[in-house]
Amino acid sequence: MFHRALELLPKLWLWAGSLDEAIAAYRRALLRPWNLEPQRLAKIQKDLAATLLYGGVEASQCKPMGPAFPENSTEESILLLFILMQKILYGEIDWDPEVMDHLTFALTISGQFESLADHVEQVLPGVYNRVERWYFIALSYSSAGQNQTALNLLKKVSGFSENNHKPHLPSFLLGAKMCAQDPSESSQGINFARRVIEASGNRNEHIISQAHKFLGICYGNAARVSISDSGRASLHRESINSLNHILLSEKKDPETSFRLGLENALQRNLSSAFDQAMVYSKMVGGSSARGWKLLALIASAEQRLKDAEAIIDLALDETGNVEQLELLKLKAVIQIAQEQPKQAIETYRILLAMIQGKGEYHGVDTNEENERRLELEAWLDLAGLYTDHELWLDADICIKKGKATKFNSARGWHTTGRLFEAKQQYKEAIAAFSVSLSIDPDYVPSIVSTAATLLKMGSQSLPVAKSFLMNALRLEPTNHDAWLNLGLIYKMEGSIQQAADSFQAAHELKLSAPVQSFQ
To answer: Which of 42-46, 226-230, 345-349: highest mean pLDDT?
Structure first.
């Protein structure tokens, strides 16, 4: 009877609305030697953890008893739930799904996803079936940023050992989503998405539309790494068809409209791309920087540079401070394309001042990596601008500033090579381009620049330069500089028709080229 009273007293305080009194009653029941049964003691611990977790206010803390003592209600709740999980694992009390539910919520709001994955792995066999366990752990690792670990677990769900079991749609859908974020896993993502579509039939329109979205994204990513022209065209077509399938089902999804606009832009279907980008911007209320950026890039590809700059100016008024950095950088690139070097330099000055100011104000900023990337790109853009105007000393200073931000940058060494090339120091330029390619073997600008520099060094290097350009076009078929240099090689070899075709391709691609990559 007395033990029953220890359980009821905190609940009475809760019903009376006295949260602090209830928590104090729970703590007295746990701290004093009442000789409670293990199951009854566990129930009080669970109830206290739930009260601390969902009470809505910060409970008053006991007097600290050491450096590891909980600092707030959430920490105290998590500690109690850890104790309960240990008791379950050692067989001291029965399995209680509510304990895992509370622990999942507590660790999720605390961002401790790896710890959650560890506790799910420790759960004894039989509580969850294999697929559910793998999915739960994969979800935890995915939230912790360990996507490859999560993806390896999800691949088990689609393995041969599970073919005779009912398909687990959430696992397949999560796998498709994660593969859509990693171009190297495109084929696996296509497999995941197809299995979702096949297994769901027509029972759940939302799941089917999400599967088609990820399928379209994976097809698009696969097209960009395809080494075959026919395969690339086929994958692009499949990407567009999958994304259009969602729009035909009258499902309004901003992400689908954005991806459809991006895929059309990459295929240089600029009119359709602009329409979808406009639809996306309207659906998100003009609050997305990437929507404005895509619109500006499409306008620049249509050679409407003034419109592109006007779009960026409008975007700067509509977006937050963090997103403005990316937009300012694009504005400067557009100004360079309009042959407005003074305005571009001023825009870069504002951008660099904002980055420096953010670093001093925040100390350690959550967007530090992105800001360092933008700072590097700003210095290298300025170096390229000064190189084009033969201001060698200023260009060299900007390159050094960029390398101080990140020394092992493929673009940084490519910009160094461009400076040497402009000064007709071709051997030094080739060396710099080689360093760039040693950092990133697939960095197309350095591949094309290497070929262009070899051409300037004499006709004896034509076969080597040609192989570089063929590799560049395999990686980026829409690179007009590669087509132009390939045309020069064909002309020097006497292949007039092939040279004319290459020059024609270079001309047409340049007319629809954005000021920077769509991606």
So the answer is: 345-349
